[in-house]
Amino acid sequence: MNGSDRENDARENEGHRSIRNVSIRRAISTSLASKVSTAVLQFVSLPVAARAMGREEFGIYATVSTAVLLVLILQMGVGPALARGISSAAARRDRDREALFFWNGAFLVGLLVFLGMVIGAVFVLYVPIPLLFGEEYRGWEPEMKSGIWTGLVLIGGLLLVSHTDRVREGYMEAYTVNAWGAFGNLVGAAAVFVGVRYFPSVPFLLLAIYCPNVLARVANSVFLLRDRRYLLKRENVRFDRSTIRELVGDGVSFSATTFFVYVVEFGLCGLLIGRLAGPGEVAVFQVLMTVTTSFEGLLTMVGTPVWAALADAKEKNDISWMKDSIQRYYRYLFLLTVAVGLGEIALGPILFPWWYGEEFSVGRAVFAGHALFLAALGWREVNRFITVGLGLLPKTVWPILGGAAAGLILGVPGMHLFGMSALFIGLGVGALFVPGLILPIQIRKVLMQGLQKESEAHPSVDSSLTQATSPSALRQ
Questions:
Q1: Burial level of 270, CB count in 10 A (0-12/13-18/19+)?
Q2: Under 8 Å CB-to-CB from 446, ≥6 apart: which residues?
Q3: Dihedral of the CA atoms 357, 361, 364, 370 (nearest 10)?
């Protein structure tokens, strides 16, 4: 390759880097607005609902919400696999491939939503509520059933229209998704804040929270198809088995590392606490997991645009940009973990009863255990986001599942002996010492392979790039 070709490649790479960086900055700025709207919902409107409904009935809402969200596991992780496929096809300017991913992803999501609705309906119709959730819930059967029916319909609708959210992310347009999400959250927060005073019931709370988000994502879908009409061409609407297999393969891996782990860390632990201590303690657990959801949201705020950009950079073998973006993500995680952990330990025992009522007084040990869990979870999740962009999902399944299993083995006996703080510590240790060790090694291998490929194409590549991918550099 002569000097002129190298200069052209350098200019083209610089252009692609600029597009990725702008996309990430826009996504982060709009995501901040979305997180603020989510915080308004979770820390302003939901405490109002908790006070209006009381700890027991709010605990019923928390249980119903947790149970209904388990339907998300049937997504099989199609969304992230779809985003990565769209990103890779768009990087190659292959519109036919983009359309194949769009329509086959829509078909797969629709099928999975239908299956989820059927399974949920069978449980509601034929399994007694006390058998599912414990004897503490006897007497609450009408509220539980009406809430579950409402939640199933809303979550099913949200999953259907969220398909285009993932497509937007694949086009590195996560900022559009965030803007519509912020709008839906604000409308939902206002509906809860005003309406729960007049309709303090579980179905109303679910409707007020989820319905505005469904409508916002319908609008996002309309604007996506308006901007990319080629996706609607009749010749592009077709079923493709190889695309379905790719989506299912990556989707199963993503589900195993996300939704199955969610079942353990959120759903299963919530149901365990309900059986051991009743709906009152589930309400406390729900509040703490709300903090977890917000923390993960701040990681996702950066991780979602980063994984799409990493897929684009990998397609173009831009190792220098990949290494720099990974290091920036690690630094962001460190600062966020320190700020949230110290803030939770110092202020949690004071702010929780003030926000939610005296019934929600929690000891400092519980907040310390939860802070450790957040630190371990953050390290695991950041590395998992990076592996999504690098195409390493199948290799992350067993390390992450192993960490979740180790967390249960440590946390469940701890819960029996020492309470909720020991449960969080056990889950955190499992996440930190299994996937937290293995995933960074997998990431470094991909960077080294890409560097070798670049060195073969450009024999005069600067040795500083080799140093940039050394273990010490990646730990910085």
A1: buried
A2: 314, 390, 391, 392
A3: -70
Q: Say how far apart CA 265 and CA 78 lie, in whole Å.
A: 21
Classify 59 as helix, strand or coil.
Answer: helix
Helices (H), 228-315: 241-257, 259-262, 269-277, 279-315
CA 315/CA 92 separation, integer angstroms: 8
Which amino acid is located at 144 in the chain?
M
Distance separating alpha carbons of residues 351 and 251, to the nearest angstrom: 39
Cα 423 from Cα 436, distance rounded (Å): 19
Asked if 86 and 99 count as a contact pair (C-beta separation under 8 A), the reply is no
d(CA 105, CA 92): 19
Comparing CA positions, the residue from 165, 143, 263, 144 lying closest to residue 214 is: 165
C-alpha to C-alpha distance for 321 and 65, rounded to whole angstroms:
40
Residue type, 418: F
Rounded Cα gap, residues 416 and 411, in angstroms = 9
What rounded mean pLDDT belongs to the chain? Answer: 81
What is the residue extent of each domain of the chain?
19-475
Residues ≥6 apart with Cβ < 8 Å to 248: 76, 78, 108
For the stretch 61-99, pLDDT in tens is 888 877 777 666 655 567 777 888 888 888 888 888 888
